[in-house]
Specification:
The complex is a heterotrimer of chains A (about 250), B (about 350) and C (about 475). Chain A is built from ten helices and twelve strands. By secondary structure, chain A is α/β, with parallel strands linked by helices. Chain A has one domain: 3-Layer(aba) Sandwich (Rossmann fold), CATH 3.40.50. Chain B has one domain. Chain B has six helices and 18 strands. A nine-stranded mixed β-sheet of chain B has the order 1-4-6-8-10-12-14-16-18. In chain B, helix 4 packs across helix 5 and helix 5 packs antiparallel against helix 6. Classes of the chains: A alpha/beta (about 250), B alpha/beta (about 350), C alpha/beta (about 475). At the B-C interface, strand 17 and strand 18 of B face strand 21, strand 22 and strand 23 of C.
Chain lengths: ~250, ~350, ~475
């Protein structure tokens, strides 16, 4: 589904990703772990198409298509979803109105019929309860005044609503207490299907107790330095990044 | 009374961003009297034409008596006629009253709300070159909701609105402005009674080469008074938006509370925004704050919307509307609020085209 | 209690006199005849032994000045100044300047000692080189040799005109043109001394440089001129201090400061302005009309102004940055305290001309007594200043019901990619904070000093260490008598 080959990415002229290769198949959950500054967030942004991240070499192929050639909204319509580490606050746009606009924009782009407000509301409500997203939150401006946990829950709600084929979770565990983490993880796990791939980016092993990955990749200094099964996370926890990076060298 | 009839140039500090003398040229505003008309008046409002003889006392008591700027003094000196309106004591008018300034020249109007009276006023202006002056007297416990819509025009338009508030009076004013060759809306608000409250908001949506200057002065002359101001500007093309907002708190006006915010979105390559929020405080027990910001759309918000599948153009529209929303949201009358929203949406099409 | 509060408390307690620099040094003076004319200008130029080009420059300025009008837009009110009723040049008789400090009139050395500015070589320990300007002349410059080794020129401007005419000609009047404004033009005609600094390419100035201005003579104006040039890749930090005796008359101080930063250069300019502010009835005090401007002429250059303004009866001062070079940075950090009958109208201008230019303004105004304190600032972004950024925070604190605090920012943007943010607040000193301090045993004045120091912290942090402590004390002293 996703095929990243020898990817080099620079931000403001400084190379962050230095030849990253990664393959993700449908139905699989891959975790990317790595220390701060290893390039984890850069990888998520470059996949979603944020400007300012220049691909200097390599390729990203998604379902046979050159992903890098697409605008962010085109990627979203093709099923690429990025749950952001810091969801943006947008005053003046209510959450419900945003959800409807985004859902219909994606549908329009895929040539599907747009949904009316009532249908969207029904769908949102159906997903909201499980994630403990209240009616009141949906009426408020997007992410404005939301707590860290509320923002992350709303990200997962969007993931449930948009039904992406590739979900990238960027440090979804950051800033969450244990109850919120469990709630978010349950939401994510309920979305695991044979058709959907996930890329879980995290600094800590903690999240992977709840979202158990099929494969773990360790990112350091812009490259994948170690790979393994879910047991690699425990090894990392025990030894620390420094040792793993050294062992790999 | 003698009046200095010279029009200000940009060398006059208060007019430095709006060179009125230059915009009008030799002819100035001329000597004509422009029209002031009202729509079907709701029952309970007294109406008096200012060109008629034997003005009643309530007009004599207030007409030409409120604080005004030198340009407003010219309209006072030159306008023959105009209209005076009064909402008597305790009268609460449910339907909005519409008032329109049209035609070339000078125009004057006076609106008096007696104690406990309530009114919603929709003010419209025609596209001609005009110097108008509107005086508003709000009695104790009275309330006026005022919405002014000035459509885009190619003329030179100056209007000064002078408002005087008595004890516990309320004035909410919204000013939707779409610019002219030179447009200046000036608010001179004297908060003279304790417990009075002023809420000003406005949007300027400008395209082409239009100009819109909103200048406000809220004078907290009495203590325990409150004022808020929220003005948003969206500028396309080669337009220019000006906001000069002065808040003064007089000596002894303790317990005054004032917030002021002016923000401009610069979308046109050659657009210019000039913001000058100003605080002048002569009392110590006060809470005053102002903020001003100029910039482009927030790149993070734009990316967030696009990453969720909303195409760039649509995302930009959404963010521009969102930017203006809180300034429109405060209009109490739902019909008028929707009218302003409609006008804003139509104007935005020209800005983002 | 924090050490700053203790310091403040101690200083406030130990001071009998409210303005401790109000003494007069009894020393024989030489003056120009009273009044202002071409003759006065020629007299000053001759006294300085200036070359003809400098005299012509002054005369040109004087002729322009005659046709100019005193600016009236600031929020300061004072009776008309009679420019003919003052001396424009006054110097201690024992000049010319001595080669060694041992030869300097002991009375002068004592004066500076009393001011807390020892001119002795001990200052080496503090790592500060000092140029001391007494009325119209520089009386001592320390550490010239050490600076010479690094190639740094640090000398009175009168010396620079003689010894480095090419450098002076190249830069003088290029930041503040002769005709810039009424007071700057007056200064250009009659400036008597001041400091010249040149830091050569790639040199990081090995010590803090400092000029200490002292007005001593009565009925005399001080018109100093400072020019600092930081050549490519250089760095210099410069401190300026000012005091004057207590007098019932008002004395005029009209200085001009020009800074030039070339590619990758940085200038940090700090001022503690403590001119005599007048007494509690508003009698006397310095009229301070100053033009300070920095030109970030080179790419990636940086100019940072920090000022603590506690003195003067009237302050009219707007240290500014012209951000001409791409990626250049301008900063303005200010504390302005006005007590009794003081009037301050001060702020900055940030002129964004180059791409990616950035500016930051932090202003803290404190009004007490019957004082009027105005922040006036301009942020202007020109059409070519792509991605320019400004952030301004401007806070005013009111102590007492008789004073005024005013905030007048001008924001002009002509580039869609620029981003400007301005925030301002005005409030009185918080009752709950005051009560908290009192409850914990602090006196009224100590509590106010403590809270005000906290309010000013962001700016105080910008000052070099030696100045920061002084400034903190000054904050407490300046507000004495403002509560109770």
């Amino acid at each position: 589904m996703l095929d990243i080959k020898n990817l080099r990415v620079a931000v403001d002229g400084k190379e962050i990703l230095k030849g990253l290769t990664l393959k993700v198949e449908a139905g699989r959950v891959h975790a990317i772990m790595g220390p701060n500054g290893s390039g984890k967030s850069t990888l998520s942004y470059v996949l979603a198409g944020r400007s300012g991240y220049d691909i200097t070499e390599g390729s990203i192929t998604y379902n046979g298509e050159d992903l890098a050639a697409l605008a962010p909204e085109e990627r979203a319509a093709r099923g690429v979803f990025l749950a952001m580490q810091y969801p943006v606050e947008i005053p003046g746009v209510t959450t419900m109105m945003f959800l409807k606009s985004a859902l219909n924009a994606q549908r329009r782009s895929r040539g599907e019929l747009e949904l009316d407000a009532i249908t969207v509301l029904k769908r949102v409500r159906a997903k909201a309860a499980a994630l403990n997203v209240s009616e009141e939150m949906l009426k408020r401006a997007l992410n404005v005044g939301f707590s860290g946990g509320e923002k992350k829950r709303l990200e997962i709600l969007q993931m449930a609503l948009f039904e992406p084929s590739l979900a990238i979770l960027d440090e979804t565990d950051s800033g969450l207490d244990i109850d919120a983490l469990r709630l978010v993880a349950e939401g994510v796990n309920s979305l695991r299907t044979p058709e959907r791939a996930m890329l879980v980016i995290t600094h800590y092993q903690r999240l992977l107790d709840y979202i158990v990955p099929d494969r773990i990749h360790v990112l350091a200094k812009g490259r994948i330095v170690a790979e393994g099964g879910k047991e690699l996370a425990l090894e990392l926890e025990a030894k620390g990044y420094e040792q793993i990076v050294k062992d790999a060298a | 009374m003698s009046v200095a009839l010279a029009l200000p140039t940009r060398r006059v500090e208060e007019w430095k961003y709006s060179d009125l003398a230059h915009a009008l040229g030799e002819a100035g505003f001329g000597d004509e009297t422009a029209r002031v008309t009202i729509g079907a008046p709701p029952a309970g409002i007294e109406i008096f034409a200012l060109d008629e003889p034997n003005r009643p006392d309530w007009i004599a008591a207030h007409y030409g008596k409120l604080r005004g700027n030198p340009v407003s003094a010219i309209s006072l000196a030159k306008a023959r006629g105009g209209i005076a309106l009064r909402v008597p004591k305790g009268r609460k008018i449910a339907d909005a009253l519409s008032l329109e300034f049209s035609g070339n020249g000078h125009a004057r109007a006076l609106l008096v709300l007696e104690e406990g009276a309530e009114l919603t006023l929709l003010e419209r202006v025609g596209p001609e070159t005009r110097n108008s002056g509107l005086e508003i007297v709000i009695g104790p416990h009275a309330r006026l909701d005022h919405v002014r819509i000035s459509p885009a025009a190619d003329a030179v338009q100056v209007e000064e609105i002078s408002v005087k508030l008595a004890r516990d009076a309320t004035y909410h004013g919204h000013f939707a402005n779409f610019g002219a060759r030179l447009s200046r809306t000036e608010l001179e608000i004297a908060v003279e009674g304790e417990g009075a409250e002023v809420e000003l908001s406005g949007v300027s949506v400008l395209s082409g080469e239009r100009h819109a200057d909103v200048t406000t002065h809220v004078a907290h002359d009495a203590g325990h008074t409150r004022s808020t101001q929220l003005f948003k500007k969206v500028l396309g093309g080669r337009t220019r938006a000006v906001y000069q907002g002065r808040v003064t708190v007089a000596h002894g006006a303790n317990g005054s509370d004032s917030r002021q915010s002016a923000k401009a979105l610069l979308l046109g390559d050659r657009a210019e925004a000039d913001l000058q929020p100003e605080l002048e405080i002569f009392a110590d027990d006060v809470k005053c704050a102002h903020g001003a910001a100029v910039g482009d759309l927030d790149a993070d918000s734009l990316f967030y919307l696009r990453a969720r599948g909303i195409p760039e153009q649509e995302a930009r529209h959404l963010l521009i509307h969102a930017f203006l929303e809180d300034a429109v949201d405060g209009i109490a009358d739902m019909t008028l609020r929707e009218t302003v929203r409609g006008a804003v949406a139509a104007a935005l099409v020209a800005v983002t085209a | 209690m924090s050490s700053a509060a203790l310091e403040t408390k101690d200083t406030v307690a130990s001071l009998g006199e409210k303005y401790k620099y109000g003494f007069v040094t009894d020393i024989e003076m030489e003056r120009a005849p009273k009044g202002l004319s071409e003759e006065t200008v020629r007299y000053i130029s001759a006294k300085k032994g200036e070359p003809d080009w400098m005299l012509e420059w002054r005369l040109g300025a004087f002729r322009r000045w005659l046709a100019m009008k005193e600016p009236k837009w600031a929020r300061v009110h004072y009776p008309p100044i009679d420019y003919q009723d003052a001396y424009y040049y006054a110097a201690p008789k024992n000049t010319p300047k001595k080669q060694s400090l041992d030869e300097v009139d002991p009375k002068l050395l004592e004066t500076y000692n009393k001011l807390g500015i020892p001119l002795s070589e001990q200052m080496a320990l503090a790592g500060v080189a000092v140029d001391a300007v007494f009325d119209s002349v520089s009386v001592a410059t320390t550490f010239k040799e050490k600076l010479n080794e690094a190639g740094v020129i640090f000398c009175p401007i009168s010396e620079a005109i003689r010894d480095y005419p090419e450098l002076v000609k190249k830069y003088l009047g290029t930041v503040v043109p002769v005709t810039d404004n009424f007071f700057a033009t007056l200064n250009s005609a009659v400036f008597s001394d001041g400091t010249f600094v040149y830091v050569p390419k790639g040199v990081r100035c090995p010590m803090e440089l400092s000029t200490y201005f002292r007005i001593n003579a009565s009925e005399t104006g001080q018109f100093e001129r400072t020019l600092i040039v930081a050549d490519e890749g250089s760095y210099v930090s410069y401190l300026e201090g000012c005091t004057a005796p207590k007098r019932d008359e008002n004395q005029l101080h009209a200085a001009v400061v020009e800074l030039v930063a070339l590619d990758d250069a940085e200038i940090k300019y700090s001022t503690v302005q403590n001119w005599y502010p007048g007494d509690e009835n508003g009698l006397g005090g310095i009229y301070n009309f100053v033009t300070k401007r920095g030109d970030c002429r080179g790419d990636r250059s940086k100019i940072s102004w920090t000022q603590v303004e506690t003195g003067s009866a009237i302050t009219w001062k707007y240290p500014s940055c012209i951000l001409r070079g791409d990626d250049s940075i301008g900063e303005f950090y200010s504390i302005a305290i006005a007590n009794n009958f003081q009037q301050a109208d001060t702020g900055t201008k940030m002129i964004h001309l180059g791409r990616n230019t950035r500016s930051r303004i932090i202003s803290k105004g404190i009004s007490a007594g019957k004082a009027q304190n105005t922040y006036r600032g301009l942020v202007s972004v020109y059409g070519k200043a792509e991605n320019a950024r400004n952030f301004t925070q401007c806070d005013s604190l009111l102590i007492g019901a008789e004073c005024g605090a005013h905030t007048v920012p001008y924001i002009e943007s002509r580039n869609p990619s620029a981003r400007i943010e301005h925030e301002a607040t005005t409030s009185k000193i918080a009752e709950d904070q005051l009560f908290y301090c009192l409850q914990r045993g602090l006196g009224q004045e100590e509590a106010v000093a403590l809270i005000v120091n906290g309010f000013c912290k962001e700016v105080l942090q910008q000052l070099p260490m030696e100045f920061a402590v002084e400034a903190q004390k000054l904050v407490g002293i300046s507000l004495e008598g403002s509560v109770g």
